[in-house]
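Run: sequence + 1,3-dihydroxyacetonephosphate -> complex structure.
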Amino acid sequence: TLISSTEMLQIARKNKYAVGAFNVHTLEMLQAVVEAAVETQSPLIIQSTVGTVKHLGPDYIAEAAKVAADRTGLPIALHLDHCTDFSTIVQCIRAGYTSVMIDASMFAFEENVERTLKVMEIALAAGVNVEAELGKVGGVEDDIVVAEHEALLADPEDCRLFIERTGVLTLAPAIGTAHGIYKGEPNIDFDRIAKIAEIVDVPLVLHGGSGIPAEQVKKAVALGMSKMNVATELRIAFSNAIKDVFAANVEENDPRKYMVPAKEAVKRLAIEKMELCGCIGKA
Ligand code: 13P
Ligand code: ZN
Ligand code: NA
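>> structure
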């Protein structure tokens, strides 16, 4: 069975590594990250955005993730990424998601607290973990667009207060990363990560994992980030592998053929990210 991400992330925090959290959009992508976890004996968070929930249906995703957890016996959680609306959260918890993100980071502090508390109430009763966001992560994720000048870093004291007010057990503070591939290098505020990790003890989430140079991921994890979200790079790897197949043979029409290298590419990339997270062998 799928487990909540709460304890998995607390263990990661205590042992100074991060769990890889991978956004999947198809059954093959889901299988690919599961195979990566099996091969490396890593804990795993499978994630879907609201867009993917609408695309595939929450029950299809949840049932596939349950099969993965049952077959592998690995600690696997299923997480709803960047959700802004309450009804989708309820729908996903009903389907079997064991972790949800309420992203009310576009609202003022008090409104963010209120919206997070509302989710906490139902999620706690269901044994489901809640991730909330403070500050604003830049870039584009599904329908959420944050321009660079609007991206706002999280204030450490606000983080402490937010956790005190909401009781959330997982927090995503904006610390300078962005969704999508960076133009140039990200501008990560490492001092801020250290400061936040010093004054709050819940696991912290690094969003915008695609495109962060390897050394910077390791540094962020060493300073206290306990979950890393990766979406865009996986999507690109998956799609490029399929493009290569069709470039070599435009007549190819068997998904059981063209999906194979795509799946393999996602698996390899997920393993690379797991290595940077330091979660290999921690299952
Ligand atoms: P990337 O698309 O940059 O990997 O960001 C992923 C993410 O933060 C999903 O919530
Ligand atoms: Zn994100
Ligand atoms: Na990114």
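>> summary
DSSP finds eleven helices and eleven strands in the chain. The pocket of sodium ion (ligand 3) is lined by residues 177-180, 208, 210-211 (CB under 6 Å).
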